[in-house]
Every structure is written in C-alpha cells, then in structure tokens.
Amino acid sequence: MKVNVKDVRAGKVNRDWLESTILVNEIFEKEPNNSTKLLEPFSIHMELTSVGEDVEVYGDFSAELSFSCDRCLCDASLKLKEKFHYILMPKKESEEELLEDEETELSYFEGDEIDLTELAVEQLMLSIPYKLLCKTGCKGICPKCGTNLNEETCKCSEETEYSFLAKELKKLKNKE
C-alpha cells in the first residue's frame, strides 16, 4: 500500500487494509530453522498527517503467528495487537550518513510516495518476542530424556548420569 505525499499535504489520510501473508512469510523463510509463519493476512490501520515537511504516522495492526515453542517445541500460536508512531522526514543526501551512523527514532521517505507496507511489516517484525513460548510458564523438555515437562513428569532419576554442565552447576550449588 502506497500513499502519495501530496495527498497527505492536502489533509489527513487514513488507510485500512489487510496485508498478505506472502511478504512476511518470505522473510521468515530466510531464517534457518525458523518455524514462524503468519497465519492469515494482518489487519493494518494508519493515519498520516502533514507536519511541516514531515509526515506523522499513527497506526495499529493485529496479526496471528504460528510457531514452535522455543522451550518445548510444541506447535503454538500468538495474537499480536500493537500501536506505533513514526515521524517521516524527506530524505536529503546529508541525512543519509546520519541514518547509517546513529540509531534514530525518525525514518525517512524519498520521492512522492510513502510505502506503508514496508512500515507495517517492520512494526510486525519488531513486535515479535525474542523468545516465542507456548505459554508463560512453559517448562520445556528434559535435557536428558526429551520428555515434555508440560505434559508429564520426567522419569529421569537423580542417579541418572548428568551432562557436564549439569554436574558443574550442581557442584556450584553444593558449595553455597
């Protein structure tokens, strides 16, 4: 979805649309061992207003992702609903270096159009948690036998041979 800067300069512009899963899922597929998928087109609303030369963008979106839990590897889903705010400035050659050298909350646009899809996808990606879990208290899997600890108690006993890391951690705990 693109919007003409002249339309924004003429007055407030509102855009509502469903963004296809194709672009987002292509981004997910580029990551090795990534099971995350956008389940359905995500809903986006943006309101653009001219502020001098700049364009102020208020927006929100909702989306649903499917993924494998990072702890127990079970299939799960997550509904995201986020709001965002941008100030877009016309890009000038001197500002190109500023954008590369410093992290800034401002973004830039070039030419007569602003690509709203790019902004929406960026916000979706930024809203995904670092660790994707099936539930907040996910217990994961037993590192020795692979039992899903959310579903059953592990059958490994205290006498079972521990990994090197587990042995070292136990020594540290016993010193306290």
Question: What keyword list fits this structure?
Answer:
176 residues; 2 domains; two-stranded antiparallel sheet; elongated; 8 strands; 5 helices; 34% strand; six-stranded mixed β-sheet; alpha+beta
Q: Which structural class is indicated by helix and strand composition?
A: alpha+beta
Instruction: Show unreliable segments.
Output: 97-104
Give the mean pLDDT: 85
Beta-strand residue fraction = 25-35%
- Total beta strands: 8
- Compressed to H and E, one letter per element, the order equals EHEHEEEEHEEHH
Radius of gyration, whole Å: 23 Å
Summarize the main sheet.
6 strands, mixed
Tell me the domain tally. 2
Oligomeric description of these chains: single chain
Walkthrough of the structure:
This protein has 176 residues and is α+β, with helices and mostly antiparallel strands. The protein folds into 2 domains: 2-127, no CATH class; 139-176, no CATH class. Helix content is 27%, strand content 34%. It contains 5 helices and 8 strands. α3 (93-101) links the parallel β6 (75-90) and β7 (107-109). The longest helix has 12 residues, at 116-127. Mean pLDDT is 85; it is low at 97-104.
Q: Layout of helices and strands, plus pairs?
A:
Blueprint (H helix, E strand, L loop, with lengths): L1 E3 H6 L2 E7 L1 H9 L7 E2 L3 E10 L2 E15 L6 E16 L2 H9 L5 E3 L3 E3 H12 L36 H12 L1
Parallel strand pairs: 6-7
Antiparallel strand pairs: 1-8, 2-4, 3-5, 4-5, 5-6
